[in-house]
Structure formats: C-alpha cells, structure tokens
Amino acid sequence: MAVEPQAAPVKVKKDRRVLRAVLRWTAATVVVAAVGSAAAYGITGMERTDVPGLATESDGRWEYPTIVRPPLPSGSPGPFADSNKAGSHYADLRKLLLPAPKGAKADAALRGEDGWLARKNFLAQYGKADGETMDQLLTDYGLRHIAARGWTVADGTRTRVYLLQFGTATAAYELVTDELANYDSPRYALREAALTERDGQFPDKVSVDEVVRYAYAESKPYGAEQAREACLLAGDTVALVVQSRKGAAPEIPFQQTVVLQSQLLG
C-alpha cells in the first residue's frame, strides 16, 4: 500500500548531498519505497509483488498483523520534516517496534521495565570486550532509550528487534557510519555470529526512503545456527534486527521483517 511521502529529510551538520553520495556507495541501500503522511498511518504489510523474491504463495513470508504507525503528539513534526532539525521521532518509541507475526511466541526477556530495555540486556548479546566498547559508545553518543521486542515462530526462527534513540539524527548518523557499520561486516560481532559478511541475498532496490540499511549474514561455517542482522538508521533512531535459526536462517522472513520495521521508522 503506497503512502504519501513526507517532507524533505532533516539536515545534519554534514552536507546532505555529500552524505547521500557516500551512503550510496557504502551501504546496501537504494531509496525507493514508502514513507508516511502525518497522523496515524496504515501500512498493510507489503504487497507480495512489492519485494523481489517475495511474489509466490510459498515464499515463506510470515503473516504480520496490519501495521499502523502511532499518531504524533499534537503539533509535532515527523522525523524527516524540514522543521524537525534534530530528526527526532516524537511518537512513542515503544510503539514504533514491529509487532510479532501471527502464531509467534513472545520473548518476555525483551519486554524490559515498562517497555524500556535496560542497557545491560542489550549489551549482553556482545562479547565482553565488544560489549564494553559498545557501552562507552552509547554513552558518548548520548543514548536516551532502548525499546525491544522478540519472538520465536514455529520453525524455530528467533527474532530480536532493538530500537535505540539518541538526542539527534547527527549523533545517530555518526555512531552508525563512524563506529558501528562497515559495508562488508559489522564492526562489533554478536556472540552468536562471530564471522559475518554483507548479505548479498537482500535486494538492494527494496528499501525505504530516508532509512539507511546495512544487512549482514553469518558466514559459513556457522555451526549449529546461522544468524542474520540488519542495522537501520532513521533520524535519531538506530534499529538492530537479528534473526537466527538452527541450520540456516531463512532469507525471506528476514527481508520482510527488516522492510516492515524500516517502514515504521521512515
């Protein structure tokens, strides 16, 4: 379902045209898809033909509920409006989390307290050294909140979605591009995916306007399980989407989940 485009993107302290040129070559991102208008926007979960490789009834995609962006507080601009110089998401971050698909079992450990996840729980997915470095980076770049949601579906695929909100879009941008994401691999490995490379199966032209995406897949030999992860940058918010499954993590649900979470943040 198409939705009306928002206003021009927020300006950060580096020239926006230069940033776009750099990102075009450093991230697996092409700007094509839909952003919302200004109230409670409906996203119907992507038509099958919207995503290459997702066009058949047996493609393995999950059945998500109808996804609705939460309303903005009265008078607040969207994250990419010209008037929103900080690139802030004024909607409740917890309501910007992708809901679990039909039949999934929720991961209670990610609910946090009143919907906010403790930083130590986010950092626990990294090894000791990387976790300590990441902890300092989150402090240095002014982390405000972490919201998270997780679930497991019948075939054993486990999903974790984390939203990390910072003070400005500039802080989030510099954290991701300078510290966290490389074109070919993340700079800090998850405990479960020590050897990870760019996910070449993720269609480059499947993207969401203004949302930068870095997608990775664990390389062989990956042991009993394989993990896929994506780092998303949208205004003042950084998202981490992780899926893993015994044997191999399926491509289609990962792509679907990442695109839908991107649409909620876009």
Number-wise, the strands total 9
Largest sheet: 7 strands, antiparallel
Order of helices and strands: HEEEHHEEHEEEEH
Q: What do the pLDDT scores average to?
A: 83
- Helical residue percent? 10-25%
Write down the Rg: 17 Å
* Separation of the first and last Cα atoms: 14 Å
> Which structural class best describes the helix and strand composition?
alpha+beta
Report the uncertain regions.
1-49, 51-55
Tags for this entry?
9 strands; 21% helix; two-stranded antiparallel sheet; seven-stranded antiparallel sheet; alpha+beta
How would you summarize the topology of this molecule?
Layout: H1 16-26, E1 42-43, E2 67-68, E3 105-106, H2 119-123, H3 128-140, E4 143-152, E5 158-166, H4 169-180, E6 196-198, E7 212-218, E8 225-234, E9 237-246, H5 251-265
Antiparallel strand pairs: 1-2, 3-4, 4-5, 5-9, 6-7, 7-8, 8-9
Brief overview, please?
This protein is an alpha+beta fold. Helix content is 21%, strand content 21%.
Overview of the structural elements:
The protein is 21% helix and 21% strand. The protein is of the alpha+beta class. The strands form two sheets. It has a seven-stranded antiparallel sheet with strand order 3-4-5-9-8-7-6, sandwiched between helices. A hairpin with a 5-residue loop joins strand 4 and strand 5. It is globular, with a radius of gyration of 17 Å.
